């Protein structure tokens, strides 16, 4: 398993990046257009929010799925019995967002969503012809004007010694969506599982932009792009006393977009949520 670190500005970037996605389900970009100062500011401002009581005013809406999800109701990965050790806030442009954080986070949402359109064009252009003919419409089109793309601000709290034995920050899982864009977190821990089942660290230097395939692109590409398992392991040493903040953008097609002969975005999502027992 060798996740490539690709220079976004290099002439052969699209080809190298898409090859890494095909082989590992992950690709990492440097020299990309998302400013590190913006990411750092978001981490700082949202850490202050998570450390305040204000979050309690935004308890998540079970129907709409926007708002704050506490550690008590945090998700349990498929096939696992313990909750992940994390809390998070789900941002949709149409959803509830704390007013003082709104402008910055929506700016980030727009920037990364438009970068995603370019990256989906790269994926399409470098898909083998028999794979590309499966796409019901251009991949970048699938996310145009979508209300379904979700930005999750994640806070993994410092360890207090009271954590349940066996629980981890984020248990092994695959993402359900088309593509995920994730700036490197402020602390390490992200790992991906290779075809030999071994876990390897994803290159996550501060400033790296990590992109991974979700189940919907695996479905749409007939398995050519694998939705690989990943996880966030627990901190050791000094890192135990530190919060970890991360910011995955889960790109979702519009609900009516056809992914495969079997599924639209909506039917696929419903099937997966039923499996997870949340619908
Ligand atoms: O926190 C991270 O680095 C990854 C989070 C993740 O994989 C997820 O929320 O799906
Ligand atoms: Fe994930």
UniProtKB/TrEMBL annotation:
Metabolic or biological pathway, per its Swiss-Prot or TrEMBL entry: Alkene biosynthesis; ethylene biosynthesis via 2-oxoglutarate
Essential cofactor(s): Fe(2+)
Entry-linked InterPro entries: DIOX_N, IPNS-like_FE2OG_OXY, IPNS-like_sf, Iron_ascorbate_oxido_reductase, Oxoglu/Fe-dep_dioxygenase_dom
Entry keyword set: Ethylene biosynthesis, Iron, Metal-binding, Oxidoreductase
PROSITE patterns, A to Z: FE2OG_OXY
Root EC class: oxidoreductase
Sequence ranges assigned to domain Fe2OG dioxygenase in this UniProt record: 146-253
Catalyzed reactions: L-arginine + 2-oxoglutarate + O2 = guanidine + L-glutamate 5-semialdehyde + succinate + CO2; 2-oxoglutarate + O2 + 2 H(+) = ethene + 3 CO2 + H2O
Domain of life: Bacteria
Enzyme Commission code(s) on record: 1.13.12.19, 1.14.20.7
Keyword Metal-binding listed: yes
SUPFAM superfamilies named among the record's database cross-references: Clavaminate synthase-like (SSF51197)
Record-stated family: Belongs to the iron/ascorbate-dependent oxidoreductase family.
Entry protein name: 2-oxoglutarate-dependent ethylene/succinate-forming enzyme
Organism taxonomic ancestry: Bacteria, Pseudomonadati, Pseudomonadota, Gammaproteobacteria, Alteromonadales
